[in-house]
């Protein structure tokens, strides 16, 4: 029995260390992505680069990827604090689906994917709404889901 508890403690330490590492790694990715996003805006907008529809689409794509990285960072923080991560996971999923729709170029080949992505967006949005509403009525939880 004593060996099992020692092994469990070691596994918990390893999990906590990995969680911290992943959270810090996500923070680094978010900061680097934000820097790349700001540099792209400066280069395209202020230094005379072209700002056509393709460039705007690229900037939106990079901005949404940074936003997703920030949501993943929030998931890591919530996990480290033993809080529920379900609402934040749903927010990240919602942003990811919106990103996919925003950056999609509509043509004859990609148009058939619009309906499934729209249904996915509706489903994830409805799920996020229900999760958000249930968590708001119950209050923050201290256990993981």
Overview of the structural elements:
It is found in: Cell membrane. The chain crosses the membrane at residues 20-43, 55-73, 114-131. Keywords: Cell membrane, Membrane, Transmembrane, Transmembrane helix. Pfam families: PsiE (PF06146). Its main location: membrane. There is one protein chain. By secondary structure, the protein is mostly helical. The chain has one domain (2-138). Helix content is 80%, strand content 0%. It contains 4 helices and no strands. The chain has helices at residues 2-46, 53-80, 86-103, 114-138. Helix 1 (2-46) packs antiparallel against helix 2 (53-80), helix 2 packs antiparallel against helix 3 and helix 3 (86-103) runs antiparallel to helix 4. The radius of gyration is 20 Å and the shape is extended.
Give the tags.
single chain, 145 residues, 4 helices, mainly alpha, 0% strand
Question: What is the number of helical segments per DSSP (H or I, 4+ residues)?
Answer: 4
**Main sheet attributes: strand count, strand direction, barrel closure:** none
Structural shape = extended
Oligomer: single chain
Strand content: under 5%
Uncertain segments are none
Subcellular location: Cell membrane
GO cellular component, one term: plasma membrane
Keywords: Cell membrane, Membrane, Transmembrane, Transmembrane helix
Membrane topology: Multi-pass membrane protein
